[in-house]
């Protein structure tokens, strides 16, 4: 009886070996790179990170001061043109979030961007570096972390109207502090892309989200 069982098991093992030997060879495992942020030379990069040949980015201007009474004043059209419009070329936008973060019935203007990443390693390094800046600034944006993307939204909850307004009303909206924080986030992001040998190009936001004046934003129907 035991001999019969042994013969049967031997035949089964032989059949398994025959099937195993006849299988197609498996592809070798992917190479592991010593620097997880460095893309291999032959690997394609994300479309959003490939630059168009005819749209080189000019350097960002020196950001507005982050301290002092004017840093809490809402930006006007002059500041928007000087400091915010250069961010538009880097896929930033401004919008009126009516119905959210309202104060005294007034809508809230925000500055925002979707940062996109080729790896989750780079994504969380960005968050770690950005977190240190946020703590140092004592000014906290709204962050939403999803797959290979970080949505950054900043606004000042205790801003004041421009110094030309003698009442100096307390409002909510984009101030020099928000612009400064946006510049810091952009600098961190650009540095990580450069270190990974990735080129910079995210599609521009729709024109409606790249306003030229504050009035355009306020008159916009908020999302």
Unreliable spans are 28-54, 99-103
What's the domain count?
1
Strand order of the largest sheet: 1-2-4-3
CATH topology: Gyrase A, domain 2
Largest sheet data: 4 strands, antiparallel
Structural class: alpha+beta
Mean pLDDT: 75
Report the strand count. Answer: 6
Give the count of helical stretches.
5
How big a fraction of the residues is strand? 5-15%
Order of helices and strands: HHEEHEEEEHH
CATH superfamily: Transcriptional coactivator/pterin dehydratase
CATH architecture: 2-Layer Sandwich
Helix content: 25-40%
- Please tell me how large the radius of gyration is: 27 Å
Name of the CATH class:
Alpha Beta
Estimate the global geometry from the Cα principal axes. elongated
- Give the terminus-to-terminus CA distance: 79 Å
Structural notes for this entry:
This protein has 223 residues and is α+β, with helices and mostly antiparallel strands. The longest helix has 21 residues. About 14% of the residues have low confidence. 35% of the residues lie in helices and 14% in strands. It is elongated. A four-stranded antiparallel beta sheet has the order 1-2-4-3. Strands 5-6 form a two-stranded antiparallel ribbon.
SSE inventory with pairings:
Blueprint: H1 2-22, H2 77-88, E1 93-96, E2 109-116, H3 120-137, E3 142-146, E4 149-154, E5 156-160, E6 170-173, H4 176-195, H5 214-219
Antiparallel strand pairs: 1-2, 2-4, 3-4, 5-6
Helix pairs in contact: 3-4
How would you sum up this structure in a few lines?
By secondary structure, the chain is of the alpha+beta class. The chain has helices at 2-22, 77-88, 120-137, 176-195, 214-219; strands at residues 93-96, 109-116, 142-146, 149-154, 156-160, 170-173.
């Amino acid at each position: 009886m035991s001999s019969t069982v042994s013969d049967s098991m031997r035949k089964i093992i032989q059949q398994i070996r025959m099937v195993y030997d006849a299988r197609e060879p498996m592809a070798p495992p992917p190479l592991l790179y010593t620097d997880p942020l460095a893309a291999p030379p032959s690997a394609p990069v994300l479309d959003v990170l490939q630059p168009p040949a005819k749209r080189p980015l000019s350097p960002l201007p020196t950001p507005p001061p982050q301290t002092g009474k004017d840093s809490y004043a809402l930006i006007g059209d002059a500041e928007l043109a000087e400091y915010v419009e250069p961010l538009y070329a880097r896929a930033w936008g401004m919008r009126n979030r009516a119905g959210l973060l309202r104060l005294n019935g007034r809508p809230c203007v925000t500055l925002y961007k979707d940062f996109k990443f080729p790896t989750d390693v780079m994504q969380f390094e960005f968050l770690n570096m950005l977190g240190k800046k946020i703590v140092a600034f004592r000014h906290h944006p709204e962050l939403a972390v999803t797959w290979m993307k970080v949505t950054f939204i900043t606004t000042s909850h205790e801003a004041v109207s421009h110094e030309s307004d003698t009442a100096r009303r307390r409002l909510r909206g984009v101030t020099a502090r928000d612009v400064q924080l946006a510049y810091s986030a952009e600098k961190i992001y650009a540095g990580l892309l450069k270190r990974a040998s990735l080129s910079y190009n995210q599609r521009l936001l729709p024109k409606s989200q790249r306003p030229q004046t504050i009035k355009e934003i306020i008159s916009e129907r908020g999302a």
